[in-house]
Here is the input.
Amino acid sequence: MENICCYMKGKFMKPVFFMCMGLFGFSMTAQNDSLQFPQDFYGIYKGDLHIVNSRGKQTIGMEFHLNPTDSIGKFQYMLVYIIEGERRERKYNLIAKDVSKGEYVVDENNGILLDAKLIDNVIYSMFEVQGNLITTTERFYENAMDFEITFADTKQKTKSNSKGDDVVEVFAYPVGGVQKARLTKE
Here is the structure.
């Protein structure tokens, strides 16, 4: 597997490789290889979403719905936030683009399409909106899922350069907020 992050200017960069391993991490959690996405994970997941940002900490109710639709390769992908007793639904669709490569698209049903990558029953997506770099991770287990979003303000990025013969510019984005939930399948 080629690691694009670690292959720069035609040379393998050991320090960058180890940095990439630390940033992206390798999950040591055993996944049940016999489970197939998405059909083995259909259902409604519920729990609490924990939000941490510069304004402090907050916990709200959350649901995640993943279900089939009448269209082949199109799935209901709905987020529900429960704030002060009020349900706020975000009705999206997950569309299979190339299942053999784990390529999907989150269709927000308003013209916004977000690329998503499925690896080992985990959906990853990264996008920029209104000056914020946002990364989402949805890790599916047999009867639960972990949902996580991180936010970084792109205007607050910092730059550093490697030393030596091959100078590499690296941009860092300070994480300004995190949303995390362990949701249980009903």
In short: Confidence is low (pLDDT under 50) at residues 1-31. The two ends are 36 Å apart (CA to CA). Helices lie at 14-24.
